[in-house]
Amino acid sequence: MTDLPTKARVVIIGGGISGCSVAYHLAELGWIDIVLLERKQLTSGTTWHAAGLVGQLRASQNMTRLAKYSADLYTRLEAETGLATGFRQCGSITVALTEERKEEILRQASMARAFDVEVNELSPDEVKALYPHMNIDGVVAGVHLPKDGQADPANIALALAKGARARGAKIVEQVKVTGVTEANGRVTGVNWQSAGDEGHIAADMVVNCGGMWGRDLAAQNGVTLPLHACEHFYIVTENIPDLAQMPVLRVPDECAYYKEDAGKMMLGAFEPVAKPWGMNGISEDFCFDQLPEDFDHFEPILEMGVNRMPMLAEAGIHTFFNGPESFTPDDRYYLGEAPELKGYWIAAGYNSVGIVSSGGAGMALAQWMNDGEPPFDLWEIDIRRAQPFQKNRRYLRERVSETLGLLYADHFPYRQPETARGVRRSPLHEHLKAKGAVFGETAGWERANWFADPGQEREYRYSWKRQNWFDNQRAEHMAMRTGVGLLDMTSFGKIRVDGRDALAFMQTVCANQMDVDPGRIVYTQMLNARGGIECDLTVTRLAENSFFLVVPGATLQRDLAWLRRHVGDAAVTILDVTASEVVLPLMGPKARDVLAQVSPNDFSNEAHPFGMAREIEIGMGLARAHRVTYVGELGWEIYVSSDQAAHVWESIVEAGEPLGLKLCGLHAMDSCRIEKAFRHFGHDITDEDHVLEAGLGFAVKTKKGDFIGRDAVLRKREEGLGRRMMQFRLKDPEPLLFHNEPILRDGKIVSFVTSGNYGHALGGAIGMGYVPCRTPGEKADDLLGSTYQIDVAGRIVEAEASLAPMYDPKSERPKA
Ligand SMILES: Cc1cc2nc3c(=O)[nH]c(=O)nc-3n(C[C@H](O)[C@H](O)[C@H](O)COP(=O)(O)OP(=O)(O)OC[C@H]3O[C@@H](n4cnc5c(N)ncnc54)[C@H](O)[C@@H]3O)c2cc1C
How far apart are CA 388 and CA 378, in angstroms? Predict the structure, then answer.
């Protein structure tokens, strides 16, 4: 292997479509000294046998943007490289067999309109006209995406590799990376092995594009890459005479997709209980391998398929294919730099959409590596959302048996995974369960989402309309608005920043004034250089050199990574203390009365004003009471060490019950926060949303001196806002908002809802969303002078719009 260099700028590990796309896009950006190493042959892992469906509408605007980019790229690659990618814009049809599914696909069609994807809604007869081979018995509706297509996956990868080589990238087959080397917390290169030969390439960056091998390779360096292979099936028929090019057809209610392929019909499956694979490792020889047939496993799908597509009954089966593919705990792939090791980048775990995703993902990752920041919000696929425990292989094996099928399951709002549950629990879990809690899962945490009434079924009944917990949520919501409610928010991420330079460091990373008296709680954002929001948090100054940060549970790893990335030589320690304390928000006008029963401390406005944290005696224990609120009411978040949590909870509940205290869940917390227009990170605010446009300028203090993002804030103040975050209330109390519903201003779609829930006190569904200004800095009166509507599954609903929170606009209630 004398032709392998000893030094490179970046080594890409893996020559599937992912690695080839990353190489192509880095080369396109002008990078030189790119080396891609493939242990066997290009595409010999999963890529060669993919079905090649390229659907452009994904679950969010930016994922759709990436998929659309892939389709455009695959169309033009042939002209550039001379290699045909086989991309054909045959369109796709998805049909619904149930009323619930119909609502889902109509909501998807609305979303397509918001994301500028061409879409047609179809009646069953129109489905039949477009797809005559199909038996439309039971079909209640369809959606047609004319720009969707299909392609030849292996050729796309080979064309990308050819394009990368033409720009100077070195792509070498039959070379296995045996390890990534590191020193002082950053990558230094890779060790490789090839036919008895071995060596080292020094490099500052590696990209793990190792597909289903990626997890174990990452684990060698302590990097968390939670994915697990599953068996994935399709059949291809014998040649069917006169079978012409058809749109791709998806029948998710029967877990099936159909694709015409060179005069044959392919039927692929997303069965509800999948078969994890590779538990005993992957054979060293694996190269273009197939897995054994499992006809019994496939048969239920085939049976429905024969009914749906009668031609399958006559055509013989030419190929029964079973191949492994990587799946992740949340069905989303991973992109970005691993928080554990600088220079260790990842593009893997594609959940059966690696062909449609890799073009865009390669482009986005290359830009991210080039600029040091993602080109736009990629949080939903960001590797920093992975939790360290998720590398546990038993957890992964159990979870992926479900995630494969979830791709075609109805994506009901609030749908919770059913497998691999219960890994992270609050010390109060059993207490809450005994009181009727129904749990959901976030970042592995079990969280009480709502409380069932005595005798009520303790399970979700999912629907696109009101679900079975709607009235429970209303009761909990109104308890916090008019009485008092107790939550358990132990899943909050908690970080201590301590040390001589703690204040200076916090001033640099946070946009608000951190030089406050000990005990003061500050709501703030950490900004990036573009003024985008990296983190939305509260910071309590515990002492001169000690700060306590509270962040969303799901963003903890990301926030730790951001802090560590910017700490430099500052004399501070950054410590994750999440598990050490339980958080009990006690919220509502009667919160003070309840506390008076369990604590001798003074909770008056004078003794304990809003925005302050105080140590308190409570029951027979000790806690910290933070006077803040995420629901917009008088209240305290009680932070209590885990060992005393049960005692303190019992004390509060015992004292509170005579005063009408109600246990509340996360659904009620969310419906309260949206009435107050409090922003939710990941939905309403992300790293591409400017803090001023998000309406959070009140928490930015440019006069305090320099901090990350200050220049971008000053610039935006000069330029004027390009868009404004607004709150909407549907005037018809019936329809529900979740997210991604199109927002119409004066009759034209201008954007979409970023988060939605029901405003039980305001009497209608509430949504948040950005409205583009017609001219920079457009006046509030002009924005509010327009009429607004929201498209809910194709129905245009009138909406009231506001820039200030509709509930308690002057924020008087929390300070009462
Ligand atoms: C039956 C089936 C149907 C599918 N249909 C579709 C579809 O219609 N549309 C779609 O978008 N997606 C589809 N997919 C998914 C798609 O095939 C994958 O998501 C995609 O191919 C993953 O690409 P990758 O580059 O991440 O992984 P791979 O193609 O597996 O590439 C990883 C490469 O890394 C190499 N490697 C691993 N470790 C090392 C090492 N240490 N050193 C050097 N090299 C290493 C491996 O040899 C391998 O070649 C399908 C998958 C299956 C199984």
Answer: 20
Report the distance separating Cα 205 and Cα 184, nearest Å: 14
Helix (H) or strand (E) holding 236: strand 228-237
Neighbours of 412 (CB within 10 A): 17
* 1 has a pLDDT exceeding 90: no
Nearest Cα residue to atom 34 of ligand 1: 14
Distance from residue 320's CA to the centre of ligand 1 (Å)? 19
- For residues 685 and 679, what is the distance between their CA atoms, to the nearest angstrom? 7
**Helix H or strand E segment including 213:** none
Closest CA to 385 of 527, 557, 534: 557
What is the rounded CA–CA span in Å between residue 582 and residue 428?
A: 9
Q: Which residues line ligand 1 (CB under 6 A)?
A: 13-19, 37-40, 44-47, 49-53, 153, 176-177, 209-211, 213, 217, 232, 234, 323, 325, 348, 350, 352-356
Count CA atoms within 13 Å of residue 161 on its CB side: 25
pLDDT above 80 (res 86): yes
Q: For residue 2, is pLDDT > 80?
A: no
Residues 590, 595, 600, 606, CA torsion sign: negative
Q: What gap in Å lies between CA 814 and CA 635, rounded to an integer?
A: 7
Average pLDDT of the residues in 280-296: 95
**The CA-based dihedral angle spanning residues 589, 592, 597, 601, taken in that order and rounded to the nearest 10 degrees:** 180
**Distance in Å, CA 47 to ligand 1 centroid:** 4
Q: What is the DSSP letter of 173?
A: S
Amino acid code (one letter) for 77 = L
| Nearest in space to 5 (alpha carbons), one of 31, 35, 29 | 35
Please tell me the total number of residues recorded for the chain in this structure: 816
* Residue 225 DSSP SS3: coil
Beta bridge partners of 277: 229
Q: State phi, psi for 186 to the nearest 5 degrees.
A: -140, 160
**286 CA to middle of ligand 1, Å?**
13
Q: What is the gyration radius of the CA atoms in the chain, in angstroms?
A: 27
Token pair for residue 441?
């899962």
Torsion sign across C-alpha atoms 799, 804, 809, 815: positive
Q: Helices 17-28 and 153-166 sit at what angle, rounded to 10 degrees?
A: 30
Task: Check whether 561 has a pLDDT greater than 70.
Answer: yes
Q: Which residues lie closer than 8 Å to 810 by C-beta, 6 or more apart?
A: none
Mean pLDDT computed over every residue of the chain: 97
Q: Which ranges of 521-611 does DSSP label H, i.e. alpha helix?
A: 556-566, 591-598
- Residue 356 CA to ligand 1 center (angstroms) comes to 12
Nearest CA to 799 among 695, 726, 740? 726
Q: Which secondary structure element, helix H or strand E, spans residue 409, and what is its range? A: none
Beta bridge partners of 256: 251, 269
Do residues 663 and 432 touch, judged by C-beta distance below 8 A?
A: yes
| Residue 105 tokens, joined | 């696909």
Residue pair 358/70 in contact (Cβ under 8 Å)? The answer is yes
Q: Angle formed by the axes of helices 666-675 and 470-482, to 10°? A: 60
Q: How far is Cα 223 from Cα 528, in angstroms, rounded to an integer?
A: 24
Residue 58 dihedral angles phi and psi, to the nearest 5°:
-115, -175
User: Which residues fall within 8 angstroms of residue 471, CB to CB, at 6 or more apart?
Assistant: none
What is the spatial distance between Cα 140 and Cα 251, in angstroms, rounded to a whole number? 12
Classified as helix, coil or strand, 498 is strand
Pick from 454, 443, 464, 463: nearest CA to 666: 443
Model confidence pTM above 0.85: yes
How buried is 312 (Cβ within 10 angstroms: 0-12 exposed, 13-18 middle, 19+ buried)?
buried
